[in-house]
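User:
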Amino acid sequence: MTTEQPLEPAIRVQGIEKSFKDLHVLRGVNFEVRAGSIFALLGSNGAGKTTLVRILSTLLKADGGTATVHGFDVAQNPGEVRESISLTGQFAAVDEVLTGRENLVLVAKLRHLKDPGAIADDLLARFTLTEAQNRKASTYSGGMRRRLDIAMSLIGNPPIIFLDEPTTGLDPQARLEVWQTVRQLAGQGTTVLLTTQQLEEAEQLADRIAILHNGTIIQDGTLAELKQLLPPAEVEYVEKQPSLEDVFLALVNDGCTQGAVPVRKEPR
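Assistant: Predicted structure:
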């Protein structure tokens, strides 16, 4: 008789610290990301989300702590980590002079993959860009450009993708397009670590949410678990369940330390 062993986390972060001179950005960050899930790192502007992503993607060295990505230590095996991930920053990194298809073919050639044209065609179809493939990227809408950017990052089929505030500057329609793309990625088995300061984005997309504040993770859980941190709804005229915004503001504004939560009130 055999028993199934738990899967190794796709990402494991233990005690990561980072300072820039006297500015302590990360003060011992801990969390794990399950393979094939969407994990949202939620925090205000300047909370250290991008710094942490740069460490996990080997672009920056931590001052302390350890982290593994796809089973590889980011400090000791940076080459293996880079082969396992893709990173999409806050602004689309497409070449606006090239067409959508040419952008994809170029990246496939740079990665020395066979049949770049077929790879490009597959991604164009996957991201609903086939009709616009021969248009210059400069003519694309914000949502189309971001979808092309994510498509480019997926060339080579990395098992893990980092999306650093992927809907920054997008209008509501473009944001919805990107959200649908992220859901499709997770549905196909890709692990997604998403950083955002948009509460609705984390609420709509994430399987688990970690709130980064003052350099540490002050809470980590599913949306339902985070909502349980606040008092239950009291029925008066309308029953209003706590939103992620209620949880976030309570945690970061009420002087909560790591592991501390507001005291629940007993329902009347």
